[in-house]
Amino acid sequence: MNESILIIGHPASGKTTFLAQFFTRVMQRKSSITLSKFPENINAIISAQNQLALGEETETTPAYENVKLILPINVNGERVDLVCPDYGGEQVNNLTSLMEIDDNWMGLVNSSNRWLLFIRPEKITSEYDLSISSYEEIEKTKSTTFTIPGLSDQSKFIELLQVLLYAKNKGIKHRIVIPKLFIVLNCWDELKTSNKPVQVLQERAPLLRHFIETIWEKEAFEIFGLSAQEFPLTTSEAKNKYLNELPENFGYIVDREGIQDKDITKLITIALR
Q1: Cα separation of 103 and 97, whole Å?
Q2: Residue 70: CB partners within 8 Å, gap ≥ 6?
Q3: Nearest to 93 by CA among 12, 202, 210, 208
Q4: Distance between CA atoms of 74 and 79, rounded to whole angstroms?
Q5: Mapping DSSP to helix (H, G, I), strand (E, B) and coil, where does residue 227 land?
Q6: Which pTM was predicted?
Q7: For residue 220, which phi and psi values (nearest 5 degrees)?
Q8: 31: exposed, middle or buried (Cβ count in 10 Å: 0-12, 13-18, 19+)
Q9: CA 250/CA 169 separation, integer angstroms
Q10: What pLDDT, on a 0 to 100 scale, did the predictor assign at position 123?
Q11: Mean pLDDT for all residues in the chain
């Protein structure tokens, strides 16, 4: 049976850009990772590949898109399937908003022992999150119109992980070893920070960090930074740089010590250790 890595992320979490860049690097043999066979369907990322090749920003995959992308690869002689279900991310939203998980998701969760959760820290909003706001601060921001506050983003991530653990029949009485969890803080270039990934997670989502460190064994989770694109393609200079030097030469990951590595495919290699 093949090893399976489940890639999870809400809409606009940056999965598309990473997988497009990852696939391009593998196809151009700019990685130690190779394809074990050509994927059956790459419609989910072909548009992003074309846009990057033209020096253009990738577009967010529409929420209504419901495509399961599977990239069958070889990593150090091991056959692995990278699986990214519901490419638009709407079903990921529904897992927490409706608290429902269908048979397809149940199968994917149960067949995977490694989860990559993509989070875009620059887009995290706290709403009424007492972990970073005092009660007095919240009172000042309330209007006279009564509204029911929504969950903070970090609370949604916690609920998502709880739903997935429930689907995998994993309790939290004992610390979790399997599945291994990899938090990918994507669009790292937006942050303009020299902090380590764990420090960024603490700043942006302290409750989420506490939850992970409480539930998972220390050796069973890791936090990365990722910039699959490296910089915005909003200027003529940036566009020309992509056109001249080719998209697969851009992007980097940030390890636990804050060290950058230009080979973004190592994210998958490290996840399989």
Answers
A1: 17
A2: 39, 40, 41, 81, 82, 83, 84
A3: 12
A4: 5
A5: strand
A6: 0.87
A7: -105, 5
A8: buried
A9: 39
A10: 87
A11: 86
The stretch 99-122 carries a mean pLDDT of 88
Helical ranges in the chain per DSSP H: 15-27, 43-53, 90-97, 103-110, 135-141, 153-167, 197-204, 206-215, 236-245, 266-271
Question: What does the longest C-alpha to C-alpha distance in the chain come to?
Answer: 62
Short-list 182, 210, 211, 16, CA closest to 115: 182
* Both tokens assigned to 127: 């709403």
Instruction: Please tell me the predicted confidence (pLDDT) of residue 238.
Output: 95
Residue 76 is which amino acid?
Answer: N
What distance in Å separates the CA atoms of residue 68 and residue 44, rounded to the nearest whole number? 8
Predicted confidence (pLDDT) per residue in 147-192, tens digit: 334 567 888 899 999 989 998 999 888 899 999 999 999 999 999 9
* Cis preceding linkage at 247, omega within 30: no
What is the average pLDDT across 219-226? 97
| Residues 232-252: tens digit of each pLDDT | 999 999 999 999 999 999 999
Pairing of strands 78-84, 3-9: parallel
How far apart (Å, rounded) are the C-alpha atoms in residues 27 and 19?
12
| Kind of pairing between the strands at 180-185 and 114-119 | parallel
The Cα 74–Cα 92 span in angstroms is 27
Contact criterion met (CB below 8 Å) for 18 and 71 = no
What's the CA gap between 80 and 35, in Å, rounded? Answer: 9
pLDDT band at 107; cut points 50, 70, 90 = confident
Cα gap 198→202, rounded to integer Å = 6
